[in-house]
Each structure stands twice: as structure tokens, then as C-alpha cells.
Amino acid sequence: MDSVNSSSHPEIMFVAAEASSSHYALNLIRLWKKKGLNIHTFGVGSRDMEKEGFEIIGRSEEMAVVGVSEIIAQYGQLRKVFDALIEQATKRRPQVVVVMDYPEFNLMLSQKLHALGLKVVYYISPQVWAWRKGRVKTIKKYCDKVLLLFPFEIPFYEKHEVNFEFVGHPLLDELDQKYFDPEYRRLQRSRYGVQEKDIVLGLMPGSRRGELQNLLPQQLRVAARILKKYDHVKLLILCAPTIEKEQILAYMDDFKSSFQLIKADPNEMINLTDIVLAASGTATLMVGLLGKPMIIMYRMSFLTALIAKAVVRGYFGLVNLILGEMAVPERFQWDLKDEELESILTEWITVPDKKNAVVNKLKNIVTKLGNRGATERVSQILLEYVK
User: Fold this and answer.
1) Residue 109 and residue 305: Cα distance in Å, rounded?
2) What is d(CA 44, CA 64) in angstroms, rounded to the nearest whole number?
3) Nearest by Cα to 211 from 308, 149, 277
4) Neighbours of 34 (CB within 10 A)
5) Residue 173: CB partners within 8 Å, gap ≥ 6?
6) Mind giving me the DSSP string for 192-235?
7) What mean pLDDT do residues 147-158 have?
8) pLDDT in tens, 298-332
9) HEC string of 119-136?
10) Could you give the count of Cα atoms lying within 13 Å of 222 in the half-sphere of its Cβ?
11) What gap in Å lies between CA 208 and CA 244, rounded to an integer?
12) pTM for the full model?
């Protein structure tokens, strides 16, 4: 079916329902604006994308859910956005649709868009190499191209003869050398009252409301224990772009220890920390790239956890997947025990060699991820569809 677009300028539809996906989509939109390209973008995205001219059909801040029961609970809202996307795609016929992560939603959407004769590119492909490998057949059938971030994904997609391009990870483009300058870090930390001798414990409870509910209370319990033992440990709570500070403060009524809650550029926030309790997700890769020892935490509904336990083999933390070893501790569901989390953090605080050993392992991540320039490479690929 030939594409017919009544607009005077090209249109690209994005479906970026996760915090990380919307961040990468935002980088593309900003790049095109910087180049003076008149491309209209619409679909599912964040408020930050909207500020750059993106036309919102669904908000990533409202759609970020994970797990079977969580999706069922929000089915009505998700279905409404799904139908609106199909309606707008039918009417506007964008030159290309970019679906990002969010596989349950995006694979069904890709099938519908393919039937409409539209071009579909999967950027930030789902972890089909880790679990539910059969989904790769759906990707191959309904997506024109898959853009891969990780080198270890390549053999899997080659084996299944999927049309792909390895673009590298866009986070490398944001890895400014200033974050490795001790003086820059000292000055930034001093703005938050952090002294040279202080150790900063960062809490990263996630970018979804469900993650706050599942992880933040435990993170706060463990942090309270640590703060009670060590006067030189300071607590920073890092607020994700898709979460409002008020949502976190709602959990803080019974928290008696001192803390600072900050919402800023993720790299700037992570750079302030020394050790981190982090919800599993792309943000943990940012923590790893900046060389911060962390415990990766993953808790979901009981039903979703049972399914995940049955089908996932090996590591679930991105850092460990990339390095091919348990470089940082990761704890899933029933393994998330306050005493053990406290014990690991205590060891990093009291035995510098233990902490430094983790830091040294994390230094190997950059070499595993390819070269900088991923956003530019993705841009060039997408613009081929616009010509």
C-alpha cells in the first residue's frame, strides 16, 4: 500500500511509554530541531517531548507499567491509547513508526500497523533473548527493522534472520568526561552540603508508580538502618523524570532520618552518589557507566514474579548482562531481604577495597557497548524512511 500523507512535512510516530525510551526519543527530536529539520512527531511520549513540539496521544508518565497483572489493572487506559494510535496512524499515514521497548503493547501495535502498510522500526528492542524468545518471530514478521543497543544481542537476531542494525547505546553520548573529574564532583556535592569524608547513599526507586510502591518502602527501611549506624553517610533520593517529587514524599511521613530529595539530570544526580540502591532498569546502566556500586532490586506482583522466575535464566541486571558476570549484586522478589541489603551496603561503607573492586569491574562496561554517536546513527536510519 502506498503511503499518502496530507501533511506538508514528514510525520514520524513514536511509541515511547517508558522513561528511558522517551528520553532517547527526546534526544532524536532535539537533534532534528538542531539540524533545522521540519519533522512533525506524535504518539506516546513524555512531557519533556511535548515541550519540544511532540504531539501527545498517550503520556509515558501514565503508561509505564510492568508485568501481567499490572497491565490488566490499567487495561482500559492502555486500550484507549492503543485505539487512538491506530486511528491516527490510519488517518495520517506517518512515513515511519518507531516503537520502543514496551513489548506487550508494541508487538500488538506493530501487527496492526503492518496491516495498514506502514513502516515499523523497533528501537530499544525487548529482551526476547532473555525470555519468551518466541516473540522474535512476531518482530521479524511485523517490524521492518530492529535497532540494537547491545553487542550481545547481535548473534540472537542473526540466528533468527531478523533485519537489524547495531547502533550502539545512546547513553554513551551523554557520558561527559566532567563526571570523572574529582574537582567537578566535589563542587557539585558541596552544593548539597556533602563533605569530603561523607559517603552518599543514593536511592533510585524507579520510574513507575508501581516501582515506588514495591521498592521505596524497603529502600527507606534499609537506609534508616544505615544512617543510624554511620554519621558520615548522607542520603539522597533520586527522583526519575516520569515521577513527581510529591509521589515520593507520600512515602516519607514515617521516615525520621535526614534526607535530600532531588530531581535533576539523571547523570548529575547519580554523580553525587557513592553507593546506590536501584530499581532494575535502564537507569542501572547509567549508574554502572558512572562507576557507582549498586544493588539492583526487582520486585513485582506475585503472579508476574512467578512467570518471570519460570522463564528467565541468568542475570536480569543490565550491567551484569553486559559484563557477563555478577559484577553487582542483584536481588529479585523473595531474595529482597532488609538484612542482606544492609549487610552489602555496610561492607562497601566499611571496607573500601570491597567497594573499589566493584568500581574496577564497572570500568569495563564502556568497552562492551560500542562507539558513541548512537543517536546520530538512529537519526540517519529513520530519515531514510522520510526521504
Assistant:
1) 25
2) 11
3) 277
4) 8
5) 27, 372, 373, 374, 375
6) TT--TT-EEEEEE--SSHHHHHHHHHHHHHHHHHHHHH-TTEEE
7) 90
8) 876 555 555 555 455 566 688 998 898 999 999 97
9) CEEEECCCCCCCCCCCHH
10) 26
11) 10
12) 0.81
Fold of the domain spanning 176-368:
Rossmann fold (3.40.50)
d(CA 356, CA 352): 6
Q: What are phi and psi of 77, to 5 degrees?
A: -65, -45
Is 288 within 8 Å of 175 (Cβ atoms)? no
Question: Which residue do the cell numbers 557539585 mark?
Answer: 188
Domain ranges of the chain: 11-172+372-386, 176-368
Q: How far apart (Å, rounded) are the C-alpha atoms in residues 277 and 295?
A: 5
Sheet hosting strand 55-59, strand order edge to edge: 55-59, 40-45, 11-16, 96-100, 120-123, 145-148, 164-166
Handedness of CA 74, 77, 80, 83 (dihedral sign): negative
**Which residues, 6 or more positions from 115, have their beta carbon under 8 angstroms from its beta carbon?**
none
What is the rounded end-to-end Cα distance, in angstroms, of the chain? 17
Q: Which three cell numbers stand for residue 335?
A: 531474595
Per this entry, what is the length of the chain? 387
Helix, strand, or coil (residue 268) = helix
The H-or-E segment that residue 16 falls in is: strand 11-16
The string of pLDDT tens digits covering residues 201-260 is 999 999 888 889 999 999 999 999 999 999 999 999 999 988 899 999 999 999 989 999
Using CA atoms, how far apart are residues 159 and 36, in angstroms rounded to an integer? 39
* Burial (Cβ within 10 Å: 0-12, 13-18, ≥19) of residue 341: buried
* Identical fold, 11-172+372-386 and 176-368: yes
Structural fold of domain 11-172+372-386: Rossmann fold (3.40.50)
As given in the structure block, the three cell numbers for residue 386 are 522520510
Task: Give the torsion sign (CA, 221, 227, 230, 234).
Answer: positive
Of 39, 45, 53, the C-alpha closest to 15 is 45
- How far apart (Å, rounded) are the C-alpha atoms in residues 321 and 299? 18
Of all helices (H) and strands (E), which one includes residue 236? Answer: strand 233-238
Q: What H or E segment, with its residue span, contains residue 114?
A: helix 103-115
As given in the structure block, the three cell numbers for residue 349 are 561503607
Task: Supply the Cα-derived Rg of the chain in whole angstroms.
Answer: 21
Residue with cell 550481545: 152
C-alpha cell belonging to residue 370: 560500542
